[in-house]
Amino acid sequence: xxxRWSLGFKVSVGMFTLGxxxxxxxxxxxxxxxxxxxxxxxxxxxxxxxxxxADDVMKLLDPGTDTVNVVKMKAQACGQMCFGNxxxxxxxxxxxxxxxxxxxxxxxxxxxxxxxxxxxxxxxxLIGPMDCDQCxxxxxxxxxxxxxxx
Length: 150
Known about the structure:
The chain is mostly helical. The chain has one domain (3-148). Helices cover 52% and strands 7% of the residues. It has helices at 54-60, 67-82, 88-100, 104-120, 122-127, 129-139, 141-148, and strands at residues 3-6, 31-33, 40-43. A hairpin with a 6-residue loop joins β2 and β3 (40-43). The longest helix is centred in the C-terminal third of the chain and has 17 residues, at 104-120. The protein is globular.
C-alpha cells in the first residue's frame, strides 16, 4: 500500500543519514517530486516515525559508540546481499532486523531504502562511494527519513 506524505518544503540535497549504502538502498515507488505546486514523497510500506522509539533509536544512534558507521556498514552488506533478490525490500528489512535487532516497522524503512539504492543508485554506486552517497542522498534518503523519523 502506498502512502503519499506532503512535505510542505523542499528537500535539501545535503542531508546526511545513518549511512545509507554503497550498493544499497528504497523500494519501487519511493520517489520524490520537487517543484511546481506540489512537493511530496511516496513510499511503499513503512510508517512515518517507525524508528523513532527508544529501543530503535538506541540501536541506531548510540552517541557513545561509532554506531552510525556500524549501521552504514551493515546496510551496505544487506544491500549487497539483497542485490538480485526478487523482493529487495523484504530482503533488506529482514537483513537489517537480524543484524541490528530493530523493530519490524523500522526494518521496513531500511528495506525500502535498500531497495531504492539497488533500483536507483546501482550505476552511481559502481562509479564510487562519493557518487553512491550523492545518489542515495538525492534519491532515497528523504523517504527514509520520513519513514524512519530519524
